[in-house]
Design goal:
By secondary structure, this protein is of the alpha+beta class. The chain is built from 11 helices and 9 strands. The chain has helices at 4-17, 21-30, 35-53, 82-85, 88-103, 108-113, 122-133, 179-196, 208-223, 229-247, 262-266, and strands at 60-68, 71-79, 115-116, 120-121, 138-145, 151-157, 164-165, 167-175, 270-279. The strands form 3 sheets. Strands 5-2-1-7 form a 4-stranded antiparallel beta sheet.
């Protein structure tokens, strides 16, 4: 029968670290009952476990948004399963990272080296969290939107909370109107971006490599059609123009009214400066 004093220390160690009974018992035995040394022992062991987990793919997780004084920061934190993404420990970490990301204006290096919960650096806390939860967890990306001469609006699609979900959008808008007058259209533009996933605002800022690649694909598809070269060239041009219109925000069909494009809705009253759309795991 185990010594009650040893079992008491194992229980205490489990409460502090969140690690399983077997590992805590081993740590207490190896460190002669010293709690502090046992914590260090598990941390070292946790680092080893965490490194192995970091080799796996983490394509689930959550997007979180922090808003204050017309400034917004959006961040994506990934894990391996949707189950963990809804775990209270993960959500607690996500919410804190959202605030830290806002403070550090979305700079990932600064985020990782900042302190979390007043305890330790984010990157060190993350190692412990990985060991505790048992999945790879990564802070994938973040972006900060300033409030200089513009207004920021956001939208979370199918939100888990008001500021967290699987798809997050931030849109930066310039206008002579007051923000109160822009709230409705700002929210709708953000919703449109979430639904239609534009690649750029207009043709001028469209990645030329994407256009060139699409042009090659279209021409390759038409090469063996048997049609006259002039006809295929005209068809290719039409297909490419459709691709550009379908993927540039201002030229997309407005989701609220299929008879209008986005540029028709905003007219000269609003300028969309930039936007970002984070979808959890996209591209991983």
């Amino acid at each position: 029968m185990e010594n009650p004093e040893i079992l008491k220390k194992v229980k205490e160690l489990r409460e502090i670290t969140g690690v399983g009974f077997k590992d805590c018992k081993l740590a207490i035995d190896e460190c002669n009952g010293d709690i502090d040394l046992s914590i260090d022992y598990l941390r070292k062991k946790g680092i080893s476990k965490a490194n192995k987990k970091m080799e796996r793919v983490a394509a689930e997780g959550m997007v979180a948004i922090k808003e204050k004084d017309n400034k917004i920061c959006i961040v994506e934190v990934n894990c391996e399963t949707d189950f963990v993404a809804k775990n209270s420990e993960f959500i607690k970490f996500l919410n804190e990272i959202s605030s830290i990301a806002f403070k550090n204006k979305g700079n990932l290096n600064s985020i990782e080296n900042d302190n979390i919960f007043g305890e330790k650096k984010v990157k060190d806390y993350l190692v412990d969290l990985i060991a505790k939860i048992g999945e790879k967890i990564t802070i994938r990306r973040a972006m900060f939107f300033e409030n200089k001469d513009s207004f920021n609006f956001f939208y979370i699609h199918n939100p888990i909370t008001q500021y967290t979900g699987k798809i997050g959008v931030v849109a930066n808008i310039k206008s002579d109107l007051k923000k109160d007058e822009l709230v409705e259209i700002g929210k709708k533009i953000s919703m449109h971006i979430a639904a239609m996933n534009p690649l750029s605002i207009n043709i001028d800022d469209f990645d030329k490599k994407i256009i060139e690649n699409e042009d090659k694909i279209i021409k390759e598809e038409l090469k063996n059609s048997g049609k006259d070269a002039k006809i295929t060239e005209k068809i290719a041009k039409g297909k490419l123009n459709k691709f550009i219109n379908d993927n540039t925000l201002l030229n997309q069909i407005w989701i609220m009214d299929s008879k209008q494009k986005v540029k028709d809705v905003i007219k000269d009253k609003i300028t969309i400066n930039k936007f970002i759309r984070f979808k959890v795991g996209e591209g991983l």
